[in-house]
Amino acid sequence: MGRSSPVDLEAAIGVFDSGVGGLTVLNALRKALPNENLVYLGDTARVPYGTKSAVSVMRYAEQAVKALHARRIKAIVIACNTASAMALEHLQNCYPELPVLGVIEPGALAACKATRRKHIGVIATESTTNNQAYQKAILGIMPEARIQAQACSLFVALAEEGWHHGELVEQIVAKCLKPLMRGSESEGALDTLVLGCTHFPALSGAIAKVVGSQVILVDSAATTASAVKARLVSEKLLNPQQAPGQLSFLVTDGPERFARVANNFFNEQIDAAGVELVDIQHHTATLK
């Protein structure tokens, strides 16, 4: 099913996440597509998605997109690994007239390009790890790859609270990553590590120190932004305006906390007064 009417090229790209982690993707989109208008929705009332069931995540994601769809958008970016893993296909079916892109496939592609020994580690939330979305995406590109996955949900809390560096953070990171780091290089130790949650880049310094310089860290934010740009180009959806695009922020709870915590993830200062509180739960989802 295609579009039934011409697209407003100045319409915004809708970006959503369960909270603030998706701001790392927003940063990358801002850099790759500086003239595009962007509206970001953080479902902060129901964060985290990483511990929720697949049905709940799909319902939450559909409600988020319905709220964004009412705001004049031309594309959707799922800036959440859990929602990308569980709800991407559902949302694509719900909105066949819109480009709907997630972060899993771009991250998997970047990992396959980066690996030297075809041994890739994935760290993510419990739901994303159990769903095996990254494993499936990587094997779809590189069937011979060896993949190890580890749930590191505690990293989300560290990132949001601004605990990004220091001895204690490194100790926690080391303990969480210990199962992945066994084995010598000759035995085929992993050489690439996918940061499979948009919160995790905030801890990249500590993670890099723990895993060592021989392991390449893959952050899907930049590759996702490149994929979004390529899709907009291919569908002739780029905004023709020359001025910098406008940013809008929506949250489902706690605008003040969102603005404060956002400083750990976003390169621009966010004024809490400019963050709009919205209720998206009144939107009826097709999943009950």
Automatic annotation (TrEMBL):
Q: Which residues bind substrate?
A: 17-18, 49-50, 81-82, 198-199
- Pathway, according to UniProt? Cell wall biogenesis; peptidoglycan biosynthesis
Cell wall biogenesis/degradation: present as a keyword of the record?
yes
Reaction catalyzed: L-glutamate = D-glutamate
* UniProt keyword annotations, A-Z: Cell shape, Cell wall biogenesis/degradation, Isomerase, Peptidoglycan synthesis
Q: Quote the catalytic residue positions.
A: 80, 197
Q: What is its EC number?
A: 5.1.1.3
**The organism sits in which domain of life?**
Bacteria
Q: Which Pfam families match?
A: Asp_Glu_race (PF01177)
Q: Which HAMAP family match?
A: Glu_racemase
Q: Which family does it belong to?
A: Belongs to the aspartate/glutamate racemases family.
Entry function: Provides the (R)-glutamate required for cell wall biosynthesis.
Q: What protein name does the entry list?
A: Glutamate racemase
Source organism per UniProt: Marinobacterium sediminicola
